[in-house]
UniProtKB/TrEMBL annotation:
Keywords: Monooxygenase, Oxidoreductase. One of its GO terms (molecular function) is oxidoreductase activity, acting on paired donors, with incorporation or reduction of molecular oxygen. This is Luciferase. It comes from Paenibacillus terrae. Pfam families: Bac_luciferase. Residues 1-303 form the Luciferase-like domain. The keyword Oxidoreductase applies. GO terms for cellular component: cytosol. The keyword Oxidoreductase applies.
Amino acid sequence: MKFVLFSLMANLPNAITGEAWSSQQKFQNVIKQAVLAEELGFDAYGVGERHGAPFLSSSPPLVLTAIAARTERIRLLTMVTVLSVLDPVRVAEDYATLDHLSGGRLEIIIGKGNDPRHYPLFGITEEEQWDSLAERYRLLKRLWSEKEVTWEGSYRPPLHQVTTQPRPYQQQIPIWHGSASSTRSTELAAQYGEPIFSSNSFHPQAKYKALIDHYRERLAYYGHDPAQAVIGAGAGSLYLADTDEEAIRRYRPYYDAYHSTAAAQHNQSPFTSLEDNIRNGPVLIGSAESVLEKIRSYHTAFGNQVLSISVDGLGEQEQLEQLHRFTEDIIPVLRREIPSAIWQHGPNLDVGSRSITAVKNDAPPISPIFQL
């Protein structure tokens, strides 16, 4: 299994000490996290995208560029790029630039986002989100793979013989599809033969498993091999301690503080308490043995090769404690038990050696990241 540390850059007062970070302190904390993640052996670092308090992550390409300058090996992910509201020309330019500045370490996860506040900011309605995402995604793919693109659609002005600059550093920037609530996202990913990343953050396992099962079914329909599916999954919150009881006691103030925010309430999580979430949901709260047991259970259900975790909301010393515990007690065990072939190689700079698989219904050829 491979591991991603990520941040949505939520900037709330510390639930125990009451300490409030300035925006500048939070930005520096995220950069420190990414540097430490590389030092500890994480495979990737991700930054989400949100457009409203308490999140400061309105510009992931800028944050990831700062991280790229301080790191050398770690993959850089967007979690997610809210493509349903963004101009694909701007996205193509910004992320191709980041691809160069990172030396080809960039991968993006696209999605429609889960915060309705961004729709009025960017001039679309919530009802349009899926159609908008699909249209903008198809244009982004063309802008990165073609020159002199001529295009017309519903969500931006027409293009006539446009070639965006710079061209990506990688032959093809890997694209994942964020999956949280609808088969529209898994359908789009399956059609293009591209990997999915299940948010797996707010609901019982069965909801996310149904979407992953749908993804595999549709992969087969479009002529891709479901056995080769590449799947990532989130894990809710992380808090490790020597015993389950200690972890619950220490984490409860953070859980209660976040779940009282409007952002958390929008997700309409069905869990009635922290204990309910631990029993029936994705949070990783407990001893190393308990956390390992839960990760194994989700892997059995999802077949995911990648797991993402976050330590947002904790003070810096607790972040350090949790990341060290995770890399000492969890990562080595799961690397032995669950092999993962992704991210074995460097940037995708030479497409010539990779085969292209024909698929039904004029679906695009399978993505290079899918052949690992």
